[in-house]
């Protein structure tokens, strides 16, 4: 075989190579530089490819970094080989610990938070044995439900406070008949614009309509069954970290009595904040207050 050693390396030699390579530690970076210099592409294309590789290396999507880098490089007319080199050089087992550590510290700095893991240890063997993985993400995960549908919107014998199936049948009929007009009409109760004295924003209504129309008809139709008939009670019971629940008491889309009021009793360590007179689209109509509550919860 080409380049095959005449005498296979022994255990001691392999161990020495692992600790101190024969060609030294400068060979990999020199090889990388030579590979970049030999690329038959413009400096701009090479720079775009390397930048894409470096960028995706800082994302948590391990396993698809190369795919992400290739997609970004293709969209920006970069060089694919440069993207692969960028991923390999800046996103590898040697650099990931530093990337994650820097990301963690920068996040704490931006959020003005203290390290909650100081002086604590995590027993991975025990976690895998008992399948209690929440200890891993408890310091960094902050679940939030804003005008959310859980536990169940549909009225059933076990959920008498839900909405009857006829309500969702009407929604399906409206989507099938004229979804454009349906979405335009939906903006009125969605943002509480049908209430006396409401300040109607035509810009907000048009933005809502545009976003809704970008969804396909099939997705719009079948999502009605998904959000109305999916029982999320058992999922809520599995949440073991502090959870913020925000809901408007004038929500005409997801009534608070069948959603937030029940979710706050099911989720352990739930914090329920009720916005008096707020509609379902409270992230738009009450954006300043919502942002303030989210930041306050994150810093707790």
Describe what you observe in this structure.
The chain has 2 domains: 80 residues, no CATH class; 156 residues, Alpha/Beta hydrolase fold, catalytic domain (Rossmann fold). It is built from 15 helices and 3 strands. The mean pLDDT is 85.
How many strand segments?
3
Q: Can you say what the CATH homologous superfamily of the largest domain is?
A: Alpha/Beta hydrolase fold, catalytic domain
**Strand portion:** 5-15%
Following the backbone from N to C, one meets helices and strands in this order, namely HHHHHHHHEHHHHEHEHH
Q: Quick check: average pLDDT?
A: 85
For the biggest β-sheet, the strand order reads 1-2-3
Helix content: 40-55%
Write the layout of secondary structure elements.
Elements: H1 11-19, H2 27-37, H3 43-57, H4 65-75, H5 80-90, H6 96-111, H7 124-130, H8 134-137, E1 144-146, H9 165-190, H10 202-213, H11 217-229, H12 233-237, E2 243-248, H13 260-266, E3 270-275, H14 282-285, H15 287-299
Parallel strand pairs: 1-2, 2-3
Helix pairs in contact: 3-4, 3-5, 4-5, 9-10, 9-11
Keywords:
300 residues, mainly alpha, Rossmann fold, 3-stranded parallel β-sheet, 5% strand
What is the compact description of this entry?
The protein has 300 residues and is mainly alpha-helical.
